[in-house]
Amino acid sequence: MALVKCPDCGKQISNQAVSCPNCGCPMASRPTTVKIRCLSDNRHVKRMVFKINGRTATETPIGSVATITANQPTTVDVTIVLGIIGGGSPARFTAVPGKCYEARYCKPGLAFWETQVREVSFV
Ligand SMILES: [Zn+2]
Known about the structure:
By secondary structure, the protein is an all-beta fold. It is 0% helix and 57% strand. It has a single domain, classed as Domain of unknown function DUF5300 (Immunoglobulin-like).
């Protein structure tokens, strides 16, 4: 059993609870779709990898839009793949249903890893 944050009231509750004991918000299996557009300022970056709740969900080429589905509450980690080498600190955000995000790798040099994720209005 793990604790998750209620999306409505923010209290920590069991991830197996059917509803939040504090506010009654239903917790069971609420699938949501999140779209993420992959961009990079570094031409060596070919792909981005998304992890949802710790599990690798999809790998998406730069320039494409990833459509990923998971149950709420959903934490998304975005990591980049530079050539054949993967790594770096992931950008992390809690996905909001119906929103679109843009993931941009913004460091041109090879010595730093930085992925910015921001909410965007297109797609
Ligand atoms: Zn609640």
